[in-house]
Amino acid sequence: MTADEDGYFGEEIAATYDESSAERFRPEEVAPAVDVLAGLAGDGGALEFGVGTGRIALPLSGRGVPVHGIDMSRAMVARLRTKPGGDAVAVTVGDFATTRVPGTFGVAYLVFNTINNLTTQDAQVDCFRNAAEHLAPGGCFVVEVGVPALRRLPPGQSAVPFGIGPAQWAFDTYDVVTQAMSSNYVTIADGRAEHRSIPFRYVWPSELDLMARLAGLRLRDRWENWKGDPFTAESDQHVSVWEKPAR
Ligand SMILES: C[S@@+](CC[C@H](N)C(=O)[O-])C[C@H]1O[C@@H](n2cnc3c(N)ncnc32)[C@H](O)[C@@H]1O
């Protein structure tokens, strides 16, 4: 699979995104995230980087928080538009590392590992700078992302399987020099194999803190999840909140 003008979220992926991510659409997943983001938005509104089909933006908007989304995939945004309340979310099509939208916000957020879709350190740094420039003084940037799973990678090995069955082999690859990774799906049908590969860049919590600092933001909270459980050595993901100093 290759990227087109919709990135890696073209028509084919967009058509089945909500079903294939059904776990993430469960109310018990969505509600705590919306609670946190609504609290941080205050009266200032929210900006979502990689708004997609509106999994978080729509319920947040439904809570009365004005939401603006940025996404490069017209196919994903078209799905958001057809949903109830979809016309209440403003959307700008573009790259969230660099695209500016009018106004400032109480919170900007980037969930579901989407910071990893930026495949260079420069682009991830740009993303933090872009978030910071959209924040009102005292506003926050929130990122939800997995902790790099390098403890699953034995020395000398560069791939970790995460789903091996008769019809599909799924595995991640890691380049521990460049922090490039990819998720790969080999699907077998009628004796033929089709390979789909999506590139990512994994990033450490401490590295994100440095990116935040470069953008003039300071870590305010880091939890294991949206319920605020403590982040520990065993946490496999984190929700991090960086704050722009109040004037
Ligand atoms: C995993 S989906 C997440 C969608 C939504 N935030 C959610 O939680 O369901 C990632 C989204 O980010 C978008 N995306 C990825 N890289 C992007 C970039 N550099 N600029 C803008 N959008 C991007 C994709 O098009 C896709 O809609």
Question: What does this protein look like?
Answer:
With 247 residues, the chain is an alpha/beta fold. It folds into 2 domains: 11-148 and 203-243, Rossmann fold, CATH 3.40.50; 150-199. Helix content is 28%, strand content 32%. The protein contains 7 helices and 11 strands. It has helices spanning 11-20, 22-25, 27-41, 57-62, 74-82, 121-134, 205-214, and strands spanning 46-49, 67-71, 90-93, 105-110, 135-146, 159-164, 168-175, 180-189, 192-201, 218-223, 237-243. The longest helix has 15 residues, at 27-41. The structure holds S-adenosylmethionine (SAM).
Mind sketching the topology for me?
Blueprint: H1 11-20, H2 22-25, H3 27-41, E1 46-49, H4 57-62, E2 67-71, H5 74-82, E3 90-93, E4 105-110, H6 121-134, E5 135-146, E6 159-164, E7 168-175, E8 180-189, E9 192-201, H7 205-214, E10 218-223, E11 237-243
Parallel strand pairs: 1-2, 1-4, 2-3, 4-5
Antiparallel strand pairs: 5-11, 6-7, 7-8, 8-9, 10-11
Highlighted features:
single chain; 247 residues; Rossmann fold; 2 domains; seven-stranded mixed beta sheet; four-stranded antiparallel beta sheet; binds S-adenosylmethionine
Count of individual beta strands: 11
Q: Helix coverage percent of residues?
A: 25-40%
How much of the sequence is in beta strands? 25-35%
Chemical compounds bound to the protein: S-adenosylmethionine
CATH class of the largest domain: Alpha Beta
Measured between the Cα atoms of the first and last residue, the distance is 47 Å
**Count of structural domains:** 2
Q: List segments where confidence is low: pLDDT < 50 over at least 5 consecutive residues.
A: none
Name the helix and strand elements from N-terminus to C-terminus, one letter apiece: HHHEHEHEEHEEEEEHEE
> What is the topology, as strand order, of the major beta sheet?
3-2-1-4-5-11-10
Question: Oligomeric state of the chains?
Answer: single chain
Mean pLDDT across residues = 96
The radius of gyration is 18 Å
